[in-house]
Structure formats: structure tokens, C-alpha cells
Automatic annotation (TrEMBL):
Species this chain originates from: Micromonospora chokoriensis
GO biological process: carbohydrate metabolic process
Site positions per UniProt: Important for catalytic activity, responsible for pKa modulation of the active site Glu and correct orientation of both the proton donor and substrate: 139
SUPFAM superfamilies tied to this protein: Arabinanase/levansucrase/invertase, Concanavalin A-like lectins/glucanases
Domain Beta-xylosidase C-terminal Concanavalin A-like: 333-539
Keyword line: Glycosidase, Hydrolase
GO molecular function, one term: hydrolase activity, hydrolyzing O-glycosyl compounds
Protein name: Xylan 1,4-beta-xylosidase
Family, per entry: Belongs to the glycosyl hydrolase 43 family.
Pfam families linked: GH43_C2 (PF17851), Glyco_hydro_43 (PF04616)
């Protein structure tokens, strides 16, 4: 692209939100020279902490995930929506620093969080062995001060009955040379009356320390709160004009749940906020796509508070004064020709290791060795990708020879262990290979025996899952073209809202992950069953 064309493109471009569609929550944004990086939460999915790359804040590509093996984090046994929460990505003296929380529980006012730190000279790794930090709270983040010191921030959890579980934001020094926390923690900020104060980030600007926090919880009451102090340890004064960003009280907005933000300053001294949003299918309804990442322009005149136009999330904002930098489009079809899984894929609770994900045994096929049942949390065999649009589909061709009813392979529209739809091949008691459909709604399973299809003698079966707004449909192809599986299924059970369960004021289950489309193989008897998938095509409408 010539300079003239690039300048014209820059003048007319805009950021269209969300910039990361589908399950990409809790963004931490970072600029290093001319490169921008976004790290997002991954919870029970590998690779952990997805990292995205841009050079203009408009066009983004997925680089990879940081946590690719159990050396960095072991998610065996991880509960639904537990695992990797709110990563923080910073850069100092030629080194990338990534802090992430591994949250183990919700029950009875406990979280059991553990925070870790890894470093790398290159964003692509290799990443160091993890440094174990404290477990006093989650949403941990580093701040590198101008005097050369580094500080760890986090929310401060309080388990005691009758107390505020979100006790405030605490700070403790981190020694980069000794790779450990030093000194004593101090309470920095107890938040506003909105409560649920978390997601802290500190920035040094214009002679002030600026503390950015998330408040109100991660759903409809979410907001970004700004406070400032002349001294690192406070006291911090809250912006008298209210939150920097929120969608509270505006059910008409397309982007809801606006909060959990982090700031970035461009090479041309423009400021932007990356933050979390959700797109409900109806006003304050189900967010099947999960919590996504958006970017807003921030006006920050010298001596004043940072402001976002209207204080609400905009669908489209002016792009920074940077040359346009688009990336090649992701191919619709994965033919499984590469030696490793493509960047669009994630795996549930275990890394995509060769003992169960095999791209070499049969060239141009993905062989998935069967794993545990839908409720198994140690070794499931699910290879899936995020649902990024209200109308989208995933289709595949599978070859599978099940021995009995304990062996299943097929395609799924998936949320968590309790909420999913699955179209699969298996062996019936009469010896036939059959295609069957099963749904789970908060653990209540619904079979559809009248829809069973005899596929005996068919070597290759096409399978397709379609998201059509609030409906999920499945189709199959036995060689004569696509046929409907015969029932419309509820897509809204695959949402954060549906997954959440509060008992006596405490979360018994939570929903943070958004929906997936995936390839699922189960070998409930542990007899060595596997399925070969010839291709996978994902399309958005």
C-alpha cells in the first residue's frame, strides 16, 4: 500500500465494535513501539490467555495463546468458568510480563485464587516458568513506575460471612531481579458505593497516578471507574462526573455490560480504552456470544479527567492517526494440513497434545482420540472454536466406526459441562451405526429418539451445526446432500445468563465463557476409540 493510499485510509477509517467478537473478555491492552497487543481471559480452555495483535487498533489477528502446556497451568479438574481470569500484559526493559489468575472456586464466598507471573523477550515466547505470587485475590496486574519499581495490584477478597467479598484494591512491591513479592501489602482503594471493585490498572500521566477499576459486577451494572492521586499509595479521588464508561440504564444500546477496561496511548498521543462488552439478543437478554472486546476513543486534555463521548460504548469510533494495517483473512475451511491445530481452535481442560489430538497419523485429517463424558473434567476430547456471530455455522466430514454405545463422535454447540447440544455417531444395541441428537439444559438431558438416523454402511458423514439467532439447528449429509436433523434447539441456553446460578445469595455456578462450535469425541469405556475429521468449515452471515 502506498503512503498516499494509507493516509486516505487512515482519514476515513473507524474502529467497529466489538473488535474481538465472541468469547474474548477482560482485555488487557499494550503498545510496544508500533505494535499493539490484547490479552484476554480463557477460563477452562487451552491455550490459556489468547493474545491478539494490531498495528492500527482497527484490524486484529490472533497470535496464539500463552499457556500452551501444563508447565504454565494445569486445568485438569477445573470447574466451569473457573481457571484463567483477567490476564494483565505489560512490557518493561525489553521484557514482556504476563500476570494471570487461576481461580478454583465460587462456593460459599470463597474463590481460592492463585496468581502467577511469566515473562518472555518475545510476545511469541518462549515464556518462563511461572512465578507463584499471592492468592489473596484475583485480577492481578503489574504497574512499572517511573522510578524503576514494579508493583502488583489485585482485588482483595474477603471470605468472612457478612463482609464485602470485594474488599478493595491492594498493592505490593514486586522485585523483578529476585522474582518475588517484597514488603507488605497495602490497601490502595476501597471503591465507590457501586461496589464489586476489581480489575485494577495504574497509569502515570500528567503528574498523577490514575487508577482504573471495574465496578458493579461483570453483567448489566458493569462500569469503568477512574480515580487519581498525586502519590502512588493515595488517597485516590474518584472522578466527580461518574464512571468513564458504562451502559447501565441504557438497554437501547447494542453494546451492554461495558466495563473492565485498560488504557493505551498511541504513538501520536491519542488515548483509547479496551474494554469488555456483551451483545444480548434482546434488551438485557441472553448474550450467547459471551463477553467480547471493544475499543473506545478517550479524550484526555492536560490537567483534566479522561472522558469518553457520552460515557457509553459506541458501535463505531474514530480510528487513531495511524497507517491502515489489515491482515490476511482467516480461511473459511481448515483442511488440517498443518502440523499443529490452527489458531482458531481451543481445547477443553487439556492442551492439544499428540496423545489425543493427532494431525500426523492420517495426513489432511484431524484424528481425535475419545475422552471423557460431557461432565468429565480431567480428560475431555473437545476441539472447538468461538462463536463470533449471531448467524454462523460449522460443518465437517467425519469417519468413525464406533464399537458400542459408549463411543460417540460428532459436532456440538457447546457452552459448558451442563449446557450443550450434540449431534453424534454411535453404535446402537442392534449393531447399527446411528446418528443421534442429545441436548443438555443445566444438566437435564433431552434425547430425540424419533430423530435417529441409520448410517450403517456410510463411511463419510457430513455434519453441520448452525446458529440462527436464538435457534440452533443441525444437518447431516450421507452423500446425497444436506438433510435437517429435524428439530429447532434453544441457543440461549448456551449463554452466560443461562449458566449462572445463585443460591442463598452466593454463586453456585457462573457463566463467563460464551458459546463454542466444536468437534467432540467420547470414549466412555476407555477402549481406544477415535474419529477422523476431514475438514472443518466455519462461516458467518
Amino acid at each position: 500500500m502506498s503512503t498516499d493510499i494509507a493516509n486516505v485510509a487512515t482519514a476515513t477509517r473507524s474502529i467497529r465494535n466489538p473488535v474481538l467478537a465472541g468469547f474474548h473478555p477482560d482485555p488487557s491492552i499494550l503498545r510496544v513501539d508500533d505494535d499493539y497487543y490484547l490479552a484476554t481471559s480463557t477460563f477452562e480452555w487451552y491455550p490459556g490467555v489468547r493474545v491478539h495483535h494490531s498495528r492500527d487498533l482497527v484490524n486484529w489477528r490472533t497470535l496464539s495463546g500463552v499457556i500452551t502446556d501444563r508447565r504454565l497451568l494445569d486445568l485438569r479438574g477445573c470447574g466451569d468458568s473457573n481457571g484463567v481470569w483477567a490476564p494483565d500484559l505489560t512490557y518493561h526493559d525489553g521484557l514482556f510480563y504476563l500476570v494471570y489468575s487461576d481461580v478454583a472456586s465460587f462456593a460459599s464466598g470463597y474463590w481460592d485464587p492463585q496468581n502467577f507471573l511469566v515473562t518472555a523477550e518475545d510476545i511469541a515466547g518462549p515464556w518462563s516458568d511461572p512465578v507463584k505470587l499471592h492468592g489473596r485475590g484475583f485480577d492481578a496486574a503489574l504497574f512499572h513506575d517511573e522510578d524503576g519499581t514494579t508493583w502488583l495490584l489485585s482485588m482483595s477478597a474477603d471470605w468472612r460471612p457478612g463482609r464485602d467479598r470485594f474488599g478493595g484494591i491492594e498493592i505490593q512491591q514486586y522485585d523483578r531481579v529476585e522474582r518475588r513479592l517484597v514488603g507488605s501489602p497495602r490497601m490502595l482503594f476501597t471503591g465507590t458505593s457501586v461496589g464489586v471493585t476489581e480489575g485494577p490498572h495504574i497509569y502515570r500521566h500528567d503528574g498523577w497516578y490514575w487508577l482504573i477499576t471495574a465496578e458493579g459486577g461483570t453483567s448489566w451494572e458493569h462500569q469503568v471507574t477512574v480515580a487519581r492521586s498525586r502519590e502512588l499509595f493515595g488517597p485516590y479521588e474518584v472522578d466527580p462526573d461518574g464512571p468513564l464508561l458504562t451502559s447501565v440504564g441504557r438497554p437501547d444500546l447494542r453494546l451492554q455490560k461495558a466495563g473492565h477496561g485498560s488504557l493505551v496511548r498511541t504513538q501520536t498521543d491519542e488515548w483509547y480504552l479496551a474494554h469488555l462488552v456483551g451483545r444480548p439478543y434482546s434488551p438485557l437478554g441472553s448474550c450467547v456470544l459471551g463477553r467480547e472486546t471493544a475499543i473506545q476513543r478517550v479524550e484526555w486534555p492536560s490537567g483534566e479527567w479522561p472522558k469518553i463521548a457520552g460515557g457509553v460504548p459506541a458501535d463505531e469510533v474514530v480510528a487513531p492517526d495511524l497507517p491502515a494495517h489489515p491482515w490476511p483473512a482467516e480461511p473459511e475451511t481448515d483442511h488440517f494440513d498443518a502440523p499443529e491445530l490452527g489458531l482458531c481452535w481451543s481445547t477443553l481442560r487439556r492442551p492439544a497434545s499428540t496423545d489425543w489430538v493427532d494431525l500426523h497419523a492420517r495426513p489432511s485429517y484431524l484424528r481425535i482420540h475419545g475422552g471423557q463424558s460431557p461432565v468429565g473434567r480431567q480428560a475431555p476430547s473437545l476441539v472447538a472454536r468461538r462463536v463470533g456471530a449471531m448467524h454462523c455455522s460449522l460443518e465437517t466430514v467425519v469417519e468413525f466406526d464406533p464399537a458400542d454405545h459408549r463411543q460417540l463422535a460428532g459436532i456440538t454447540a457447546y457452552y459448558n459441562t451442563l449446557n450443550w447440544h450434540h449431534l453424534y455417531l454411535t453404535r446402537d444395541d442392534d449393531g447399527r451405526t446411528v446418528l443421534q441428537l442429545l441436548s443438555s439444559d443445566n444438566g437435564r438431558r433431552t434425547p430425540y429418539p424419533d430423530l435417529t438416523v441409520d448410517v450403517s454402511g456410510v463411511t463419510r458423514v457430513g455434519l453441520r451445526a448452525v446458529f440462527d439467532g436464538p435457534v440452533v439447528r443441525f444437518d447431516y449429509d450421507l452423500g446425497a446432500g444436506w438433510q435437517p436433523a429435524g428439530v429447532d434447539l434453544d441457543a440461549t441456553i448456551l449463554s452466560d445468563e443461562h449458566a449462572a446460578l445463585i443460591i442463598d445469595g452466593e454463586p453456585a455456578a457462573w457463566g463467563f465463557t460464551g458459546s463454542f462450535l466444536g468437534l467432540w469425541v467420547q470414549d466412555l469405556g476407555g477402549d481406544g476409540a477415535y474419529a477422523d475429521f476431514d475438514l472443518a468449515t466455519y462461516r458467518e452471515q
